[in-house]
Amino acid sequence: MHNVAYKQRLAKYYDSRVKPRAFKTGDWVMRKVSLATKNPTDGTLGPTWEGSYEITKVCGPGTYQLRNPKGKTLPHLWNADHLKYYYK
To answer: Alpha-carbon torsion 58, 64, 70, 75, what sign?
Structure first.
């Protein structure tokens, strides 16, 4: 019983600090660099965010289709946790 109350308090604290992100079609975002997209020659001091991408489609809650500035649509969907607004 005591453990359940602790988990509920911890979840409430975490949820109060989370900043939900919602983008709409036409917004420009930057994409977080992951191990799959990271250039191996950059090392630990490489960039953590890359590009500017336009959101072309909202596929579900927090899931987006992206297009690069040259007009090429990226092959898979991206989660809002891996995106942030790009301010020109």
So the answer is: negative
Bridge partners, 50 (sequence order):
31
Domains of the chain from N-terminus onward: 21-85 (2.30.30.140)
**Tens digits of per-residue pLDDT, 4-57?**
889 999 999 988 887 778 899 999 999 998 877 787 788 788 888 998 999 999
Cα torsion 37, 39, 45, 47: sign: negative
pLDDT tens digits, residue range 48-64?
A: 899 899 999 999 888 99
Task: Output the pTM of the full model.
Answer: 0.72
* Closest by Cα among 5, 84, 3 to 50: 84
CB-facing half-sphere around the CA of 63: CA atoms within 13 A:
5
The three-point CA angle 10-12-17 to 5° equals 100
